[in-house]
Automatic annotation (TrEMBL):
Protein species of origin: Streptomyces thermoviolaceus subsp. thermoviolaceus
Keyword Cell membrane: no
Low complexity composition bias: residue spans: 25-34
UniProt family annotation: Belongs to the LysR transcriptional regulatory family.
InterPro entries according to UniProt: LysR_HTH_N (IPR000847), LysR_subst-bd (IPR005119), WH-like_DNA-bd_sf (IPR036388), WH_DNA-bd_sf (IPR036390)
Keyword set, alphabetical order: DNA-binding, Transcription, Transcription regulation
Protein name in UniProt: LysR family transcriptional regulator
Classification via CDD domains: PBP2_CysL_like
Length: 348
């Protein structure tokens, strides 16, 4: 058998007919996708880009259907809310795109050509399919918008979210909202497993696999019951003294515990380790010992003198409050609205 000519070899390289993987490479160069057959061979097929170049847009197809229905380009333009010159220009553009004459124009109106009648039939099917597609997408949006699953760390869940959810209810009265309160680690787990749509955390860092937005800031404060020796101090606590003292603390994994541990460089063994802000606060009020809590959580107790603040020097106990969601899935629908509301009513 004769060897291929240089021209033939060049042609083979250009079309992907020679060498392993040539079909896929040739398909990419010519704007075609490769469909894997059951026998392992690849069959090129047009990509969406090629199809979009050859097929008129939905607006043009709807205009053609309106002309067929009304028998007049002017009447069709009025139905669609555009000017007659714009409608005429769109029809001519579609004719150039298809390489076909679709309408015979005369003073008495516009009549479909034979080719135009066929294209109109095809256009009707395309538009009906698009309407079905739109209806299906709307049904999915309605299902998404009918519920919102929120996960939040304790301080945010107890002291900030109630107000946000009341405001969301005014905007979306038909959305059913469920709230799971837990520590920051539990919030991340629910988001990553698909059990929540939007989360709120108070920790130092954003858990892996999540995107975030800072929605405000909070400050941790040291509090005791009025009879505790620290309540009588004239000078602030030093950071080292606070770190060495057994405290009433939240459990490991909570945002409060993470921030405090990082700020002090380590903590003494807890006096008590409790799983909710309310339990920590109640223990401090009872006189069990000093606690570190969010400023948001103890406003009432401080105003009634059931707790007192103990100043601390040499340590920054401010922390960011964050909304979090799975990476690459920006909040939509009710989750997007709730996120917007948090930015309107969160401590700075």
């Amino acid at each position: 058998m004769a060897s291929p000519s240089p021209e033939q070899r060049a042609a083979d390289r250009g079309t992907g007919t020679a060498g392993s993987g040539g079909d896929a490479a040739g398909a990419r160069r010519t704007g075609a996708a490769t469909h894997e057959n059951g026998d392992g061979t690849g069959t090129p097929r047009p990509t969406g880009g090629v199809l979009a170049h050859r097929v008129p847009d939905l607006g043009a197809l709807e205009l053609l259907l309106a002309v067929a229905r009304r028998g007049s380009l002017g009447a069709a333009a009025r139905d669609l809310g555009i000017t007659q010159p714009a409608a005429s220009s769109r029809i001519r553009s579609m004719e150039r795109q298809l390489g076909l004459t679709l309408l015979d124009r005369s003073p008495r109106g516009s009549r479909l050509t034979d080719a135009g009648a066929l294209v109109t039939d095809w256009a009707r099917r395309v538009v009906e399919a698009a309407e079905a597609f739109d209806a299906g997408a709307q049904a999915l949006r309605d299902r998404r918008d009918s519920r919102l699953r929120v996960a939040a760390s304790m301080t945010i869940a107890e002291y900030l979210l109630p107000g946000w959810l009341i405001a969301l209810r005014a905007r979306r009265p038909d959305t059913a909202v469920s709230l799971h309160a837990g520590n920051s680690t539990a919030v991340a787990e629910r988001l990553l497993t698909g059990a929540a749509d939007l989360g709120f955390v108070e920790g130092l860092t954003v858990p892996a696999g999540l995107d975030s937005a800072v929605i405000g800031h909070d400050r941790l404060i040291v509090v005791t019951a009025p009879g505790h020796p620290w309540s009588l101090r004239r000078r602030p606590l030093r950071a080292a003294e606070l770190a060495a003292t057994p405290l009433i603390l939240r459990e490991k994994g909570s945002g409060t515990r993470q921030v405090l541990d990082a700020a002090l460089g380590g903590l003494a063994r807890p006096l008590l380790e409790l799983s909710s802000t309310t339990a920590v606060k109640a223990s401090a009020v009872s006189g069990a010992g000093p606690a570190v809590l969010s400023e948001l959580a103890v406003g009432e107790e401080l105003s009634l003198r059931r707790l007192v603040t103990v100043p601390v020097e040499g340590v920054d106990l401010r922390r960011a409050l964050r909304a979090v969601w799975p990476s690459g899935h920006r909040p939509a629908g009710p989750a997007r609205d709730l996120l917007a509301l948090t930015r309107c009513g969160t401590p700075g």
